[in-house]
Amino acid sequence: MNSTKNQTNSYQFWDHASTSNITEYNSSVTFQSEFSPVIDQVIGGVLIIILFITMVSLGCKMEVAKIREHIAKPKGVAIAIVAQYGIMPLSAFTFAKIFQLEPMAAMTVLICGCCPGGNLSNIFTLGLHGDMNLSILLTTFSNVMGFGMMPLLLYMYYQGIYGLESAIPYGGITLALVLTLVPCAIGIAINHWAPRFSPIIIKVGLSALVVTTIVIFILCGIAVRDTIRPVLSPPLVATAALMPIIGFLFGYMMSFLFNLNQQCRRTIAMETGCQNVQLGTTVLKVVFPYEIIGPLFLFPFIYVTFQVGEALLLTILFRCYQRFKASSNKKTVYVTVNGNTEEATSV
Question: Which family does the UniProt entry place this protein in (predicted)?
Answer without folding.
Answer: Belongs to the bile acid:sodium symporter (BASS) (TC 2.A.28) family.
